[in-house]
Each structure stands twice: as structure tokens, then as C-alpha cells.
Amino acid sequence: MLRNYIKIAFRNLWKAKVFSLVNMLGLVVGITACLLILQYVSFELSFDQFQKDADRIYRVTNDRFQQEKLIQHGTITYPTIGKTMANDYQEVEGYTTLVNNGTVKFRRDKSVYQEEQTFFVDDHFLTFFTFPMLAGDPATALKAPNSLVLTEKDAKRIFGAQPKDYARLIGKTLFMDLDTEPFRITGVMKDVPATSHLQFGALISYETMVRTWGPWVKTSWDGSDMWHYLKLKPNADALALESKFPAFSQRYFKGDKVSGSVENFHLQPLLKAHLYSDYEYEIGIVNNGKAVWTMLIIAVFILLIAWINYINLSTARSLERAKEVGVRKVAGATMSQLIGQFLSESILLNLLALVLALGLTVTLEPFLSEQIGKPLSLSLLTGAGYGGRLMAIALGAVFVLGMFLSGFYPAFALSSFRPISVLKGSFKRSASGVWVRKSLVVFQYMASVILIVGTFIVFRQLAYMRSEKLGFNMDQVLVISGPALTRWDSTSIERIASFKNELKQYPAIKAASASINLLGDRLPRTFNVKRVGSNQEKGVTVTRMGVDPDFFDTYQIKLLAGRNFLPTDSDPDGRKVKNILINSSATTLLGFQNAASAVGQKIMFFGREWEVVGVMNDFHQQSLRHQIEPLVFQPFYTNGGFYSVKIATSDLNQTVDLVKQTYSEFFPGNDFTYFFMDDQFNRQYKDDQIFGRITTIFSILAVLIASLGLFGLSSYTISQRAKEIGIRKVLGASIPGLITLLSKDFIKLVLMAILIASPIAWYVMNLWLSDFAYKIDISWWIFALAGILAIGIALFTISFQSIKTALMNPVKSLRSE
User: Fold this and answer.
1) Cystine design at 173: which of 105, 182, 203, 242 (Cβ 3.0–4.6 Å)?
2) Does 219 share its domain with 303?
3) What is the pLDDT of residues 108-148, one digit of tens each?
4) Is the domain of 34 the same as that of 147?
5) Could you tell me if 235 and 326 lie in one domain?
């Protein structure tokens, strides 16, 4: 019997080629879109899942308060925290501490190799986390000063090593940056998985930092540059442990007496570090969890829309197949046999669509991966991603269930026809069936309108962030990494000034400056800053930035009062520097009446006085996700910073070559690496831009699939009204009037979908916008535009069938009367 079902199913699918093709197209597009989105979601949700005991690992976070005001919500805290918590609380099984060392240059013979990300880590790190070693002992590799563990990538890049050679690398040495003492390689580890929120290319022993920076990196209660992770014992209650932290703060910090701030500590689960981190000074790779879950909802919507289409398109053929059902029943077919026949058609069509969708998914993966910068693969859904093989089983179960459920209603509806009514020609549509189909179309267009509104708002917010005046001009600014392999000495400031002056001799170069920090970076903070001579009891917190006198001209930042830095404000010996600039927000925070009144005043931090020589206009140092912060500028710059060069782009390649040549003359032995400031700054919006691209692509697909569903319902309804239309034409009805008559019921459904979708879209997008300090207002016209677009698409979808029926010769429809 099964063989017969399949044979008849193929025959019926081939007979109704147009309906089969439209049905197949909707399912293929829907399943493909769903599989692609699920790969992205699976990748994002799988971060740190590979870590052994990941569910017991927590990151220590720290909120700092001054004068009952939150001044820092960060992942960095004091050197002593991890070890002290491990000693004080029996719930803690182990801990590890690390420090971000950023970019370094490894030197081997005469070759230099740049590593973008390195960490100082303690000797617990490799046994605490699951980063497998390929050579060396993880328990001892990072105990001694100047110990270095390389990843496979660097072992191959620097030494040309193959897996069989890794053990031979143990004991070999490299020099790092300007260090004269070699670093001994004590281990080679596997490359860090892409799904680790901690990304690095090499690890350096923490003891190296102790020897270089001093013992405070282990003992300090007020120097805050460390990240701590705790592993709790099995069955330990993290919330109960966290409830003990206020007493911990009181015991060690005594209110604000030790650090100048009231310290509140919290535990963040490792498995939430990637998607649910709103912290400052983030060391890991993070994304927006709201956006990821939104994508999952979109995937569900698209798949539901695709299966709803099948239901509508299948039941649209009910009149065509009514007589077939009547004849089969008269011939002795039972209802279960008829249901089996129609279900087999549904399953066959779904299986064919699934096979085609899998092929299309594999074809489109590289394109989507490039667009969003994520390594997408079907393996993420078959064991390598979130949930492991359970994901594959769950996904298979969903598809099987969806195939049966989407096929069951049409099968039940078609098999329930009464043969006597059908064969006598008195078969009529079911009111309940029409209601179900209309409800499904309302759901489809509701989901589509939500996606359309969401896409509009995402792109308006992105456009707002790109077009909003930031308070500085970063166009055509070439940024060069500083000469880290040139030692800082008494001649360095003069050499940098000469380098800049040489660059300015070229007509294509308009300005040049040096700075320690980059615009867009999270700047360091300074606590307990006070005005000298005021009755200020508590200090305030400001951020700080090291720049040279040309920085503000290069970026066209406006001076409000006083003067800019002079070359004489800087000194190779930082202890002799005494003048500073502040921004307008710092002026307000420090209690000055206006910018002019701040000039000439002195403020205290770092244990000494500084004179304010000028006030700069506020500017958005970070993205518009963040508030403008009080900022202090110091005339500090080092060889490890950056040079910003304002250029004309008429002949970009030639200009870059000139800059490179000049750089090599002044700083021989240093690599020339550069980027453009606007690219660097806009990287802050990368995840938002990816979210915008994905929502746009899949919103279009959702609307396309929903339109197919409306096409199915319009075909079904209009075909049942063919005789009515024939009678109306005979009685003199006009074609425009008939088209309006046939279309208005469907437009009512779309209007209903718009009314339901609008408040849902408003709530969801307000939630998304809450992550931005500066954001657009959600205007009413966005919903109006989305509604007009939805109605326009609906009219276009149903117009073909409406016009065809209205133009049909009434004789054909009335022939059987």
C-alpha cells in the first residue's frame, strides 16, 4: 500500500505542476533560511561549551560606587581577589588570574612576528581551563618567569614546525618587544577554538609580570587591571556564595577606605560571558544575546510561515480534489486510507524540499559566512555546535513533527468530504476551514510586518550612528602603529616631532599627531580626582587619554577655553609633566561654573597637582552605545602608541608609500602596520551591522513566503466565487468593481495583521534600542510605511488571480448551471 501511496503522490504532484512548484519553492526557501539562521544561533550559543566543568566556572565582576553613584561596571578588579576568595570560601574549588598584554612582537634571529593578542596568566590557567597541550606540562609550563606557551598557529608561523616537531620546541627561546632577556618556550597548545570568549595567540607566565612590574600585581587592593575566574565545587550554590560578597567587601575594603570606592562583587557564569556581557573593560569576545535570540525567533517564524503555506496551498486545491475523494469513497476507500494518501503526498513534498534545502544551504554558507564573519557549517547542527548531537536529534524531531502536522490538516480536511454532496455538485466550503486559513494568513503577515518594522528601525539606528556628529572628524585619517621596537629615551619626543614635521612636507598630508590611545577604545579611568583648594570631600572619577599637541587639530576637536598643549608641556620623564586639558563634561563634574573658569585651576590625582590649561569640547570617544564621559588629556605619548595622519586620498597608494618610507627612515627595524580610523571606530558597530544584514535578508524571505501563502488563500477563495463573478458580470458589474470585491477581504486580513503586529514590534524594538545611550525615537510613520508596504505586497500577490477571474468569460463559469 505504501508503494501505491507514493506512486499516486508523484502522479498528483506532477499533475498540479504550478501548485507543486509554488509549494516546493515556499518550503525550500523556508527550510534553507531556517537552517542558515540556526547555524548562526548554534555558533553563538556554543561559546565556551567545550570547557570542562563550564557550568561550574564563573567570572568575578566588580561594580564600584563613589558617593552612591556607579562609576564602573567592569570585568577587571584587584590582583588579590581570586586568591582571597578561593582561600575564604570553601565553595571555591580553584581560581585563575590573567592580565591582557595585548599585541607583542616576537623576535627570532632577524625576523619579527607580530602576535595580536597575548595574556599574562598564572600557573593554574592551563589546568583550570580546557585548552589542550600538544607539548609541555600544563601544570608547570607557566610557573617560572619568562615562560612562554605558543599556540599551534604561532609554532608553525615562527618555527615552521609540524605536529611531530612540537616537543622539540620546548626549551627554545624568543625575544619579545624590546626585552633583552629571552623567553623560554615551555609548551605548545592547540589553537583556541573560535567558540572561546577568550581569544589569544600566546600565553606568558604571570611571574614575568611580577618581576617586571613589581610584587603589587599579586598583593595590591587598589591597582585594578586583573581578570579572575573561579571554579565552584560540584553542587555549590553560586547565588548563596555571591550573597557573602558584601561581607567580603566590608572585611577587606572597609567601605571606601582602601580603594576610594565602595566595591560590590558578583559572579557571572562563564556560559553567559559571550552573550550577556554589558561590562566595561571586556577581555572576551562578546555579542548581543537579544539579537541572537531574535534571530532564533525569526527562524521559527520563517519555518512556521513555510508550513502554513503548505496548508493553505494544499487546501486551496480542495475543490479540484473533492470529486477524487468522492469517487474513492464510493469505491470503498476508508477515511484512514485517504488520510494516509494525502499525508504521503505531504511527507514526499517535504522530504524533496528538505533535500533541495540542504543543497542550497551548503551552497549559500560561504556567502553568508563572509557577510557576517562567522564560520557557518552544517556541522554546527549535527554535533559540533550548541547542544551537540541533541541539537541534531531535536532538529530532526521538529522537522518530522512539522511535516506531519502541516500535512495532517489538509489530509483530514480533504478526506472528510461527503461523497454524496460532492458527486451531486452541492459541495460547499466549510466556514470553520475558511476561518483557519484566514487565521494562518493573519499570522504570516503579522510576523512579516514585525520583521519589516524591525528592519526599518535597525537600519535607521545604524544610519543615525553613522551620520550623527561625533564631535571630531575621523575622515581620511591613517593610523600607524607606533614603533614598539624603538626604545623610549630622552630624544624620543624630538624624534617623533621630526617625523611628523617631515610628513607635513608632503602636499597630500594635512596633519599628523601621536597618542597613546585610539578613539573608540575603552580608556583607562582615574579615581579620587579632586579640585585643589575646594571643600570637596569625595573625589570623582574621570577617564584619561595621552595625546600630543597636534592631536586636536588632526581630529578637528574644538577648543572651548584656554590653550592647546604646547611642545614644552611634554617631557620624556613623565614625572615632570604638570599641565592637562579636560573636556566639558569633566568641567561640570569637577564643579566649575563654565569652561573659562576651569582654566588655570589645579586638580589632584596620582598623588600630585596638575594645572588645567585648556578645556576641549565634548566628543563621542566611544560609540553611541555609551555616554560621553568626563575626560582628562595628558601630554603623554610613547613608542608603543599610535600616529594619526590626516591625508588626501587622491592618490592613496602613493601617499601610503611615502608615509611608509618616512616611517622606516625614522624608526628602522619596526614593521609598518596601518589602518584607517573610520574603519577602526566603526568596528564597534560590527555586531549591529551583522544583525541588520541578517534581519534584512530573512525579512525579505519571510515576506516572500507569506505572499505565497496569501496567493494560496486567494486562489482557493476566488476559485470558489467563480460562478458568483460570472453572474455579476452578466448583470453588468465592471472589472474594477469585481477586482475590488475580490481583494477587499484579503486586505482586511492584512490590516488585522498590521494592528496585531504594531504593538509587538514597538515593544521588541524598544527593548533592542535600550542598549544604546543615544538612539532614535520610534516614529509612527515607520509603522505606517511598513503597513503600506505590506498592503502593497498583498495587493500585488492577489492581483494576478483577481484580474484573471474578473476577465474570465462568464459562460465558462455558468456552463454547469
Assistant:
1) 182
2) no
3) 988 889 898 999 999 999 999 999 999 999 999 999 999 99
4) no
5) no
Mean pLDDT rounded to a whole number for the chain:
85
> Running DSSP on this structure, what letter comes out for residue 723?
H
Contact by Cβ (8 Å): 603, 531: yes
Sheet containing 642-647: give its strands across: 509-515, 642-647, 477-481, 674-676
Q: Is residue 467 part of a domain?
A: no
HEC string of 75-113?
CCECCCHHHHHHHHCCCEEEEEEEEEEEEEEEEECCEEE
Can you spell out the DSSP letters for 591-620? T-SSHHHHTT-EEEETTEEEEEEEEEPP--
Within a domain: residue 643? yes
State which residues form the domain around 241.
Answer: 54-272
Give the residue, 337 or 141, on which the prediction is more confident: 141
Residues 73 and 144 placed together within one structural domain of the fold:
yes
Is 416 found in the same domain as 333? yes
Tens of pLDDT, residues 478-511: 999 989 888 888 888 899 999 999 999 998 999 9
Query: What is the share, in percent, of the chain residues with pLDDT greater than 90?
Result: 42
pLDDT confidence bin for 5, thresholds 50/70/90: low
Write the DSSP assignment of 12-39 as a string of letters: HHHHTHHHHHHHHHHHHHHHHHHHHHHH
Q: In sequence order, what are the beta bridge partners of 96?
A: 229
The residue with greater pLDDT, 373 or 649, is 373
Q: In this structure, are residues 419 and 351 in contact, taking their beta carbons and an 8 Å threshold?
A: no
pLDDT band at residue 426 using 50, 70 and 90 as cut-offs: very low
- Domain C-terminal end among 428, 450, 467: 428
Residue pLDDT, tens place only, 575-607:
889 999 999 999 998 989 999 999 999 999 888
Residues 43 and 94 in one domain: no
- The reply to whether 206 falls in a domain is yes
Distance CA 359, CA 255 (A): 62
The DSSP letter of residue 272 is: G
Instruction: Report the relative pairing of strands 602-605 and 525-531 from DSSP bridges.
Output: antiparallel
Burial environment of residue 435 by CB neighbours within 10 A (0 to 12, 13 to 18, 19 or more): exposed
Residue 539 to residues 69, 221, 223, 561, 592, Cα–Cα distance (Å)? 12, 18, 17, 24, 14
C-alpha cell at 687: 555586531
pLDDT surpassing 90 at residue 803: no
Residues with Cβ within 8 Å of residue 623, at least 6 apart in sequence: 465, 520, 681, 684, 685
Work out how many domains the chain is built from and give that number: 3
Q: Could you tell me where the DSSP H helices lie in 373-417?
A: 389-415
In this predicted structure, the answer to whether residue 298 has a pLDDT above a threshold of 70 is yes
Q: Are residues 258 and 397 in the same domain?
A: no
Question: What is the total residue count of the chain?
Answer: 817
DSSP 8-state code for residue 117:
E
State the cell numbers at 296. 532564533
More confident residue, 424 or 292: 292
* Residues above pLDDT 70, as percent of the chain: 86
Q: At residue 321, does pLDDT exceed 80?
A: no
What radius of gyration, in Å, describes the C-alpha atoms of the chain?
A: 34
In a domain, 229, yes or no: yes
Between β-strands 602-605 and 631-634, what pairing exists: parallel, antiparallel or unpaired?
Answer: unpaired
Clarify whether residues 563 and 498 are in a common domain. Answer: yes
Phi/psi for 231 (5° steps) reads: -115, 120
pLDDT (tens digit per residue) in 338-360: 666 667 777 788 888 899 999 99
Residue 595, all three cell numbers? 569652561
**pTM for this predicted structure:** 0.84
> Own/partner pairs for 102-107, CB < 8 Å, 24+ apart?
103/481, 103/484, 104/176, 104/177, 104/202, 105/176, 105/177, 105/484, 105/485, 105/671, 106/154, 106/158, 106/174, 106/175, 106/176, 106/202, 107/174, 107/175, 107/176, 107/485
| Pure H helices in 165-215 | 166-169, 206-213
